[in-house]
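Note on ligand handling. Small-molecule inputs were canonicalized before submission; formal charges were left as drawn, and no protonation-state enumeration was performed. Where a ligand contained multiple stereocentres, the stereochemistry in the source SMILES was retained. For guanosine-5'-triphosphate, this procedure yielded the string shown in the input block below.
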Amino acid sequence: MSRGTVVSGSNNGFDILTEDGSMVRCQLKGKKLKGAEGFYNPLAAGDIVEWEPASAGTGMIQSLVPRKSLFWRYNEKGKAIQAIAANMDVLICVTSAAMPPFRPRFIDRVSLEPSSDRLPFIIALNKTDLGIDEEVAERMDDYRRIGFETIEMSAGDGQGVEILRERISGKTSAFVGQSGVGKSSILNALEAGLGLKVGEVCEKFERGRHTTVAAILSVLSDGVTRVIDTPGFRRLAVRGIDPVTLGACFPEFRRLAGQCALGARCKHLDEPGCAVTAAVEEGTIHEDRYESYARVLAELEDTRGYAKKIGKPRRYEEDDYEDA
Ligand SMILES: Nc1nc2c(ncn2[C@@H]2O[C@H](COP(=O)(O)OP(=O)(O)OP(=O)(O)O)[C@@H](O)[C@H]2O)c(=O)[nH]1
Ligand SMILES: [Mg+2]
Ligand SMILES: [Zn+2]
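Structure output:
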């Protein structure tokens, strides 16, 4: 039995990067994959599997090696968790200064999983060549202030590309974010040879066109740096977090843990003696971050049934409307 890494694939077959660096097309052995029970899809880009050679240069996947990290979202149609990218050392949320517009509430939602899993997380503000509005600059400053790592960059003119390269060098990183923000373009800027497909942003609606349709892992020419490109989505619905622990996924709220009069039971809404709402009034918690928190909390309360059912891992579904 050998080990290999899933580069891409669907139920019809997976491209596996073997330990000696060659590629082999593999099928699953049987209908259910050992180790991937309960998921909408058995395997994500970045998964490590045990496989065996089969006929004519193909392979048979026997089992999934436990994941050390996972980015996933809740698939509403399948009513199950869809694994998007696995085993990354760092998750990068790509966002754009413009075209499509900067969406901090979307970033807030993406940040919840790495915040609670302690997975290194970077906010990459792309398309800085289009100019950075004051409002965008102010929010990026706030993200840094509360402890998020950020990179301001442009796949278009190359700003920040070397900083990104240094940060992900020798590691596996996964790039996620809304359609059209430039995830595939950034990877092509790191290495033109990747030749990932890039699509225009629709001028009228300022939205991407879902150009990347499946996650794919690529190895850069240094032979050791791995990057996972993923399909864009417009909105992330949050599932499966216990509402009373949501505050702990916001680092600047977490710092106030234990200071609310109600202690760990405080949901930071209108409870007397709440340290979080006091910090919002004082301006030490950004009111838009608080708004994100309140919206996600309401969503979690509305979908408690899901939360119970799927437990941990918690999260996400694709949806058709734009704003969180
Ligand atoms: N001006 C400018 N345009 C960029 C930049 N990066 C990407 N673009 C453009 O933005 C559009 C979308 O880029 P993609 O790389 O396809 O975006 P994506 O995030 O991979 O989109 P999906 O695959 O649909 O999720 C293309 O027209 C790119 O040329 C940048 O830094 N500056
Ligand atoms: Mg893409
Ligand atoms: Zn509170």
